[in-house]
Amino acid sequence: MHIPDGFLSTPVWAGMNLAAWPAAGYLAGRAQKGFEETRVPLLGVMGAFVFAAQMINFPVGVGTSGHLVGSALLAVTLGPAAAAVVMTVILGIQALIFQDGGLLALGANVFNMAVVGTLAGWLPFHFWGAGKGRKAAVFLGAFLSVVVAAALAVAELLLSGIPMPGAILGISLALFLVSAAIEGALTLAVFQALEGLNRDFIRKPVPARGGVLAAVLVAAVLLAAVGVVFASTQPDGLEKLAENVGIADRAKAYFGTPLADYETRFLESSWLRKASAGLAGLVLIYVACLLLGRMARRQRSV
Amino acid sequence: MHHVVLERWSRGDSLLHRRDARAKWVVTPLFLALVATAQPFDGPLGAAYAALLVCSLLLARLPVFQALARAALVLPFAGVFALAALLSGQPERAGELAVKAYLSALAVLLLVGTTPFIALVRGLESLGAPRFLILVSQFVYRYLFVISEQAQHMRASSACRGGFGRRNRRAALRAAAGAVSVLFARSYARAENIHRAMLARGFHGHFHPLRHGRFGSADAAYLALASALLIGLRLAMPRL
User: Fold this and answer.
1) Which residues of A88-108 are buried (b: 16+ CB within 10 A; e: fewer)?
2) CA dihedral for B2, B3, B6, B11, sign (positive or negative)
3) Using 50, 70 and 90 to split pLDDT, how confident is the model at B44?
4) Measuring CA to CA, which residue among A266, A72, A46, A17 is closest to residue A187?
5) CB pairs below 8 Å between A and B: how many?
6) Fewer beta carbons within 10 Å, N or C terminal of chain A?
7) In whole angstroms, what is the distance from residue B151 CA to residue B172 CA?
8) Residues 6+ apart with CB under 8 A from A302
9) Which residues of A touch B5 (CB under 8 A)?
10) What's the mean pLDDT when you consider all of chain B?
11) What is the C-alpha to C-alpha distance for residues A99 and A69, in angstroms, rounded to an integer?
12) Could you give the CA distance from residue A58 to residue A55 in angstroms, rounded to a whole number?
């Protein structure tokens, strides 16, 4: 889901740009360290590969076909940092050349899909990729990469005050889950085919130790919870619900004059408070991802 | 392929084509930010900015109607949310979303249609973007067309042999996955060949441009004029 310009409110797009570009710069630095500088053609050509792979249609379900998004596939083949760099570049080219996603909103799109999405696609493989649960890890990674990115995008749109009735929210949530499952299945199918072709294409993850599992679970729960919390902080929906049920009138009757003044002040400030709370949540996810990345790196060097 | 259209547009010659990419990299985000922060985004301002964009398209000698149609690619996405806003009883919000998304897309199209991609990323690099990202994007753009063509050939040849679909869905899925993995392996091998060829030609991590763009007085004048016009319109409009 590429967010175009004009949809995000100023605090959201500005904040997302502030969050995304340092992260992209950091990941670029890590990718550069992981690869020799002169191996940059590999990343470029693999980026072009992702574009081209999206042209190959997979038959899924009745009469429909899907295509690969590719961030999880890149993560298990090139490594997470390099995959994030490639996805960042792809998003930039899509915004410029294909009018897919906005330029101011590029920070948000990069954060959702290239930074958090790719890391979410990598983590299961990092921890379970060596053992028996390898296939499940690949599937889960690809599934998460789509779900997490979509949840973040919806959260940002809701924070920006885009009106989304519950029905549309529900439908899009269902669509996201379906397309995430498709991405998981396709990534797994390509992963197995690649493994059959040449095992060296696949990264070799270090077997996980105890305690790490808990960290991953916490991170997953955190991500899911934050997404749900964002979705439920939608002010319009709650207010409308209250109006429909009739609580609003009754509430006014109960808390008549003494609270009237306070109420307007609360409403005035609530937008700002919600926005800042949301941004704080995003920063939390960011820090969690950074910490996990650190941990993962330390483990690999052991 | 439609992206080749933009490549052709960007090779044109006009007053706007000749301006330095850095100046355009300042003016375009400024325009986008002015549009994004305008709250409420009312009719006169929208009309003025739309007129400005159309005039710029004319000045750049780009096909105006084609550009207008291309920018409409954002409308399906914007339309869904505009519909949602309409359904929840906020018609003015719906219009605002669609108009903002459309004008922003048109502005980006003007930027890309008047600046070759290579000049665009070089401008970003001299504005301080990480060189590694810039290098990777140059490669992606260069090989985008090559690898896509290869994918198209593979699709055509698989269709000649009976196609991916029809019989057993499981077999079809495996065939498509196999095609993607073969494309992956070929891209990987191609990247290694490119790497070796570049090393043989003395590549050490940087491309040398044939022409160095200079930020001249015309570019400075364009930058000042365009910024003043955009900000002036934004400030003047609500009072009209």
Assistant:
1) bbbbbbbbbbbbbbbbbbbbb
2) negative
3) confident
4) A72
5) 249
6) C
7) 17
8) A206
9) none
10) 84
11) 17
12) 9
CA distance A46 to B136: 10
Whether residue A76 contacts residue A91, with contact meaning beta carbons closer than 8 Å, is answered with: no
Q: Are A212 and A295 in contact (CB under 8 A)?
A: yes
Q: Identify all chain A residues contacting B108, using CB atoms and an 8 Å cutoff.
A: 5, 95-96, 99, 102-103
Looking at the complex, report in whole angstroms how far the Cα of residue B144 sits from the nearest Cα belonging to chain A.
4
- Whether B210 shows a pLDDT value over 80: the answer reads no
Query: Can you list the alpha helix ranges (DSSP code H) found in chain A?
Result: 10-34, 40-53, 71-78, 80-97, 106-109, 118-128, 134-159, 166-197, 212-232, 235-245, 247-254, 257-301
Contact A44 B136 (CB under 8 A): yes
Q: What distance in Å separates the CA atoms of residue A4 and residue A104, rounded to the nearest whole number?
A: 8
Residues forming beta bridges with residue A58, ordered by sequence position: A66
More confident of the two residues A259 and A1: A1
**Residue A5 near residue B98, CB atoms below 8 Å:** no
User: Residue B105: is its pLDDT beyond 50?
Assistant: yes
The residues, any chain, with a CB within 8 Å of residue B126's CB and separated by 6 or more, are B22
Confidence of residue B1 (pLDDT cuts 50, 70, 90): very low
Alpha carbon A111 to chain centroid distance?
A: 7
Q: Can you read off the two tokens belonging to residue B111?
A: 């930027």
Q: Is the ipTM, as predicted for this complex, more than 0.85? A: yes
- What separation, in Å, do the N-terminal and C-terminal C-alpha atoms of chain A show? 38
What contacts A237, CB < 8 A, 6 or more positions away?
A: A164, A165, A166
Residue type, A207: P
Of A7, A29, A49, the CB nearest to B147: A49
Bridge-partner residues for A65, per DSSP? Answer: A59
Fold of the A10-301 domain: Arp2/3 complex 21 kDa subunit ARPC3 (1.10.1760)
> Do residues A160 and A7 make contact, with C-beta atoms less than 8 angstroms apart?
yes
Query: Which of these ranges, A59-68, A87-96, B146-155, has the smallest mean pLDDT?
Result: A59-68
| CA–CA distance, B59 with B57 (Å, rounded to integer) | 5
- Comparing CA positions, the residue from A116, A216, A98 lying closest to residue A156 is A116
Residues 6+ apart with CB under 8 A from A158: A164, A230, A231, A233, A234
pLDDT band at A89 (very low <50, low <70, confident <90, very high): very high
**At A282, is the pLDDT very low, low, confident or very high (cuts 50, 70, 90)?**
low
Whether residue A149 is predicted with pLDDT greater than 70 in this model: the reply is yes
- What is the model's pLDDT at position B161? 81
Is a pLDDT exceeding 60 seen at residue B168?
A: yes
